[in-house]
């Protein structure tokens, strides 16, 4: 069924590449116009390169190639004023807002000498950044507006993001993603009278830069000095119940599309795992409830 979000406008953070770009393209394929923001700068504690302005421009070209409108703005989710200005710029062109996808995130896992400030950076982006995106958006959402937050299945797994070997930044990532669960449920409850729904998607490993970097490779294969993608894929595969190393960004985007569309108009406060069964492998996991 084409045109599932025809005529809607989506505000997407972390849209320059990875999952955010995929969400922008998938929603555009189904008729949405896009307000896309990304920091397009490096955060010092994050050991892998973040997106660039060129990446954001490429997202814009992909959306335009689908015949949809897009406004791109360089903005830091940690700064609520920047986000408000970015959204205002988009609204001035596109006129209204229907969908919020708070996707921007970092995983500043330990490499070299981990610092306590890594925890703060992770929380500022992965939790405060989400709250900032929601705060500036809610005044513009009308009936059956949709807020979609990016969680993490890894954060739900004991010994994953809270592994001491991963450092304070990973702990901050995991704590932030877990905190989003309660935050989203409270938000969904209080926005329900306005017919605005709030849901969280918890991906497993996704084929993006957050997964494919030297820091995470070394964590999964500490026995090798310079592990490659080929070296770590068997270890990544052990993470899921289905025998795959990771899902593709579009697999998460398809879930975003469902939550963004009117097909889910009465679905709110949900925690959806797109995890190839990874949490099912945990002793005492949901299969034992």
TrEMBL record:
SUPFAM superfamilies referenced in this protein's UniProt entry, alphabetically: NAD(P)-binding Rossmann-fold domains (SSF51735)
Keywords per UniProt: NAD, Oxidoreductase
Question: What is the superkingdom listed in this entry's lineage?
Answer: Bacteria
Q: Which organism is it from?
A: Gordonia hydrophobica
What does the sequence similarity comment in the record state about its family? Belongs to the short-chain dehydrogenases/reductases (SDR) family.
Q: Which residue windows are coiled coil?
A: none
Entry-linked Pfam families: adh_short_C2
Q: Which InterPro entries match?
A: NAD(P)-bd_dom_sf, SDR_fam, SDR_subfam_1
The signal sequence is none
UniProt-recorded name of the protein? Mycofactocin-coupled SDR family oxidoreductase
């Amino acid at each position: 069924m084409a045109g599932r979000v025809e005529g809607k406008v989506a505000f997407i953070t972390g849209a320059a590449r990875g999952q955010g770009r995929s969400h922008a393209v998938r929603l555009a394929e189904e008729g949405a116009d896009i307000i896309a923001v990304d920091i397009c700068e490096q955060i010092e504690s994050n050991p892998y390169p973040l997106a660039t302005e060129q990446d954001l421009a490429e997202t814009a070209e992909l959306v335009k190639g689908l015949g949809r409108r897009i406004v791109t703005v360089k903005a830091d989710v940690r700064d609520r004023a920047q986000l408000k200005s970015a959204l205002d710029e988009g609204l001035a062109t596109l006129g209204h807002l229907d969908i919020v996808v708070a996707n921007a995130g970092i995983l500043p896992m330990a490499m070299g000498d981990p610092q306590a400030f890594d925890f703060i950076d992770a929380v500022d982006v992965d939790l405060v950044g989400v709250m900032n995106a929601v705060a500036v958006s809610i005044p513009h959402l009308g009936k059956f507006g949709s807020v979609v937050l990016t969680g993490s299945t890894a954060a739900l797994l004991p010994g994953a993001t809270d592994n001491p070997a991963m450092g304070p930044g990973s702990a901050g990532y995991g704590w932030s993603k877990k905190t989003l669960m309660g935050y989203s449920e409270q938000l969904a409850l209080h926005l329900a009278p306005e017919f605005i729904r709030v849901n969280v998607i918890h991906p497993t490993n996704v084929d993006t830069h957050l997964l494919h970097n030297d820091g995470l490779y070394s964590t999964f294969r500490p026995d090798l000095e310079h592990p490659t993608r080929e070296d770590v894929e068997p270890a990544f595969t052990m993470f899921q119940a289905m025998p795959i190393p990771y899902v593709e960004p579009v697999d998460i985007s398809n879930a975003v599309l469902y939550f963004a569309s009117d097909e889910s108009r009465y679905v709110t406060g949900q925690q959806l795992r797109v995890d190839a069964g990874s949490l099912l492998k945990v002793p005492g996991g949901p299969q034992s409830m």
